[in-house]
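Structure first, sequence second, as always.
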């Protein structure tokens, strides 16, 4: 019943099931007071009944709950056992039946039942009740409220020195950090959670959690580009499964699914390392496991998409098309997988673009942008959570509550003395307040006046910015109308000529001209969309190696240069330097500059790319032997829709947006872009980034 949902969460691939796994085990009691280092969470009589329901299969959740109730009807349950049954109902309604109202009812029931049965006697059950309530609120996207309950659970576990229960808090915190793309912090938090969960007495739930955390550590290392450490932890996860799977032979399928997930993740790293044959074998092995009925179909879909992307990298476009068709059939016939749908749209765009199906490529590009924007908006509130600030705030509130209780107790002893002094203090305070009131009012008036002035300044700046944007918008509309009018008019004219033309050869030539005009129009529209995206989107930065970045960007451009019999020479940094930047945006800058060098250089020319590092900056230069930039155009090359546009040496079509986008990207990174040029002798462009 649960394997598909659990492994979606294990691999971090489906944000819709962010909290599925840990709720399966959130009510395991911890009553072994005589074992300070190993915590026994098991309740055998209830565990065995719940275990049977896991084999009923998908769609049998309500029947599973009825089966548990009927099996326990005549049994007198202990407090831990009763709490476990309530918790099982909560997680079933929350993650499988998708009824948050009933899930919330059972979470509240857990808290009330624990409090009615002396929560000090059952601190672990009390803590898991708060975890349960927090999970319901988290699913409802009430993140701050959810974190308050998580913190209360943590406080209970910490007060009772229960590292097993603390592991639940650490795990949730690590998952939030991962979803916020704070991968380095997530690595350390997952490691801490692994150590804490290791203090629990091993059952299937703890075994599953531990191998999952090893996999999540590896995923986080992959996200920061540390592939060696990622592969090391994937190997640790596989060894952990091999060592422990015989202890839980009744869950053989789950072991295979977990291995399949890891194979797919390992294959992704091998692809990044250029080991395509090994990558393909692992991806197909993973798909073969998880595409089976009852296994993790969602992970298989995502792994299949990795395989399609691998085919794209190898230019096996026919194989890519077959894979994308198979994935589409799987998406249509299974539960919605938003992340897979987004990636499928992206790869369909790439597929049609490679096949020069311009209209279809544009359609899927727009679909991908829409889906991706929707996913980012859905995670916006989650990304606003500052865990450190939440902890500090809750700790302060806890300290305030403690002090309040202490003050209430002291107040009982001080009431008599305070009553005797009250009249004197009241008179003194009355005089003191009157003397300060005028001063306070004056200060308040000054403060309000300062605030009004500040708001006025901010409003003026905002109005000026709006005016500037409005002017820019009008300019863009005029330029777009002008630049699109010519190809659209050409298409209309050619259509009229084709209606009159009887020669098939002449018609084909006119159709080709119509196609060229349409492609130019679509290219202009894509440039406009990119310019708007640079202005309006936020930059997600990561540590990127400069040599690797230059190499990746220029590999495909060498093919463009080869078409004009040009040679690209690259001088890399002597030692790799890693800088925090948006990889795709900076690749766009380098790509644009090198493409211009190819465009404006003659056949047989040499283009030199050089990377240098000095102090806290890295500089990349691109030098060509082309036609150069005239003096009257130099001040305009970075303008939006600049009129400083010229065709390339082979008649390449210019649009005037590329260098404007480059400048916006560099400014967004706090970097610089400039050039030196002499007409007829060539141009050298420089970009400079700070290594902060």
């Amino acid at each position: 019943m649960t394997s598909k949902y659990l492994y979606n969460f294990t691999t971090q691939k489906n944000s819709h099931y962010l909290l599925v796994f840990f709720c399966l085990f959130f009510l395991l009691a911890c009553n072994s007071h005589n074992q300070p280092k190993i915590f026994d969470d098991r309740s055998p009589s209830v565990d065995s009944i719940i275990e049977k329901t896991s084999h009923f299969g998908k769609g049998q959740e309500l029947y599973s709950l009825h089966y548990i109730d009927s099996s326990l009807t005549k049994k007198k349950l202990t407090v831990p056992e009763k709490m476990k049954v309530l918790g099982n109902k909560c997680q079933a309604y929350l993650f499988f039946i998708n009824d948050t109202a009933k899930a919330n009812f059972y979470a509240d029931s857990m808290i009330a039942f624990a409090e009615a049965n002396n929560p000090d006697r059952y601190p672990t059950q009390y803590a898991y009740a708060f975890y349960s309530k927090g999970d319901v609120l988290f699913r409802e996207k009430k993140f701050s409220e959810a974190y308050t309950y998580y913190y209360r659970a943590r406080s209970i576990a910490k007060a009772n020195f229960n590292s097993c229960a603390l592991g639940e808090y650490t795990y949730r915190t690590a998952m939030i950090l991962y979803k916020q793309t704070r991968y380095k912090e997530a690595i350390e938090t997952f490691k801490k959670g692994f150590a804490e969960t290791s203090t629990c007495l091993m059952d299937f739930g703890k075994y599953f959690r531990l191998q999952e955390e090893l996999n999540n550590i590896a995923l986080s290392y992959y996200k920061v580009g540390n592939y060696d450490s990622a592969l090391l932890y994937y190997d640790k996860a596989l060894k952990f499964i091999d060592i422990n799977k015989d202890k839980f032979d009744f869950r053989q399928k789950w072991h295979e699914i977990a291995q399949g997930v890891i194979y797919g993740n390992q294959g992704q790293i091998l692809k990044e390392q250029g080991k395509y044959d090994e990558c393909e074998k692992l991806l197909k092995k993973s798909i073969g496991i998880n595409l089976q009925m009852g296994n993790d179909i969602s992970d298989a879909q995502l792994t299949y998409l990795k395989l399609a992307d691998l085919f794209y990298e190898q230019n096996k476009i026919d194989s890519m098309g077959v894979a994308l068709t198979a994935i589409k059939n799987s998406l249509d016939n299974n539960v919605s997988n938003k992340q897979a749908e987004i990636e499928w749209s992206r790869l369909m765009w790439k597929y049609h673009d490679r096949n020069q199906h311009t209209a279809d490529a544009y359609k899927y590009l727009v679909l991908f942008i829409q889906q991706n924007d929707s996913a980012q908006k859905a995670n916006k509130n989650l990304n606003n959570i500052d865990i450190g600030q939440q902890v500090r705030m809750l700790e302060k509130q806890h300290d305030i509550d403690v002090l309040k209780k202490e003050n209430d107790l002291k107040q009982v002893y001080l009431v008599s003395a305070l009553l005797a002094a009250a009249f004197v203090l009241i008179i003194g305070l009355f005089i003191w307040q009157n003397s300060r009131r005028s001063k306070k009012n004056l200060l308040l008036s000054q403060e309000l006046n300062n605030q009004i002035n500040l708001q006025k300044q901010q409003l003026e700046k905002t109005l000026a910015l709006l005016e500037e944007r409005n002017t820019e918008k009008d300019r863009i509309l005029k330029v777009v109308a002008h630049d699109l009018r010519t190809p659209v008019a050409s298409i209309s004219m050619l259509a009229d000529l084709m209606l009159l033309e009887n020669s098939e050869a002449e018609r084909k030539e006119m159709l080709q001209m119509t196609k060229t005009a349409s492609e130019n129009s679509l290219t202009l529209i894509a440039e406009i969309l990119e310019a708007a995206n640079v202005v309006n989107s936020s930059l997600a930065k990561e540590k990127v190696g400069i040599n690797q970045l230059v190499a990746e960007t220029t590999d495909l451009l060498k093919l463009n240069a080869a078409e004009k019999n040009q040679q690209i020479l690259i001088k890399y940094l002597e030692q790799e330097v890693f800088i925090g930047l948006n990889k795709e945006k900076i690749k766009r800058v380098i790509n644009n500059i090198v493409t211009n060098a190819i465009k404006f250089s003659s056949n047989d020319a040499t283009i030199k790319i050089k990377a240098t590092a000095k102090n806290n900056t890295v500089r990349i230069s691109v030098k060509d032997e082309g036609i150069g930039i005239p003096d009257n155009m130099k001040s305009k090359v970075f303008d939006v829709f600049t009129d400083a546009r010229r065709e390339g040496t082979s008649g390449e079509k210019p649009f005037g947006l590329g260098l404007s986008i480059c400048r916006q990207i560099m400014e967004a990174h706090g970097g610089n872009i400039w050039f030196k040029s002499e007409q007829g002798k060539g141009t050298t462009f420089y970009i400079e980034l700070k290594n902060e």
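Margin note: The domain at 203-276 is CATH 1.20.58 (Methane Monooxygenase Hydroxylase; Chain G, domain 1).
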